[in-house]
# Entry
Amino acid sequence: MPDRWRYLIDEDIDHRFEKMVQLRRQLHSQPEPSGEEYQTSLSLYQSLADAGFAVAMGPEGRGVMADFPADRRRTASQTPLRVALRADIDALRIYEQNQTPYRSQRDGLMHACGHDAHTAVVWGVLNCLAELSRSGQLPWPVGVRGVFQPAEETATGARDMMQAGVLNDVGAIFACHVDPSRGVGRIGLRTGVLTANCDAMKVTIHGRGGHAARPHEASDPIAAAAQFINSLYLSIPRVTDSQDAVVVTIGQVTAGHNANVIPDQVELRGTLRTLDSRVREETIGHVRRIAEGVGQMCRTTIRLEFAEGAKSVVNDSKLIDMLRRASADVVGCEGVESIHRPSMGSEDFAYYLDHVPGALFRLGCASPRVGASGLHTPTFDVDEESLRIGAKVLARAAVLWCDPQRAAREFDAIQDLLA
# Structure
């Protein structure tokens, strides 16, 4: 049967499903935050090396690259050698409130964005494809690279991994992200813009400290911070075209050490999210004008710093078509849903897409049993049946991308353009 490989993928993923769940739970119970993913990386490195992959550690011992086969060589007619499958491995600084046996054992740290699930999915796909390749049961040679990336939450990990050569000899990259707004057995796909640009915003408010009983003798930066935040939330929607998407959020406020002392400085940190570069620049201008006005009113000085973060994820249409075909094969056409509007969330997966075509899909992870809480919440969890589905979809997409007839057609098309 020409398509027997699809059934063999399903059998293999089903066979190793419990190991995928075990890995996900191990990672969930021992989370590591962005920039500190040393033990997670070492564990993945050892596991994949033992399984016969050519492995390399990312910068500073964080992150892992795993190749199979290890000795694949460039041919004259096909320059893209491998398809990369990306997972992220960092956790968030959130206190977990779930009471599961695999809940976080590290206070204040939690896999609240599903990175443990992403890692288990890609780990399962790599081992599945390697096993079927060794036994000669794939329809054509398949070259894959697993990318287990640190520091997605701080939007630095993708760039670090690229500097380490993670995209060398890679022709395309796929990824999935769990989605608690979709039930298990549902796949969300969107061609083009999927996520927002995200800029980090730091606001430093300098005032003059004083006694809490005599605020008239001080220039209260906390009062200025309150006015600034309130003005930001009220004004930005009123100066932005209602058809343009903008989200400004302050997520961190740092000030003072004593309840009866007015401090001399407040620091705010937040994010600015947009879908359009013009809207981004206009919004930054609005924020600066608000800061100037509040500073004058409250007799303080407000300094703004914007650090450009992850750009929008823009999904490649051909790769989305492959994912659509793979998803329909796994969950049926009725389980494949179109994502009609971009998300205002951000993903540093976008950095890879500046260099190679890529696509990220949404993997439904909610069920009546588990998964009702949103991402980045202390009760977030996934129905682990989603791991099985995500692995079957990604494995199919990787095999489809490596189809030599497809590669030959694209190579011929490129040659025609160059002629």
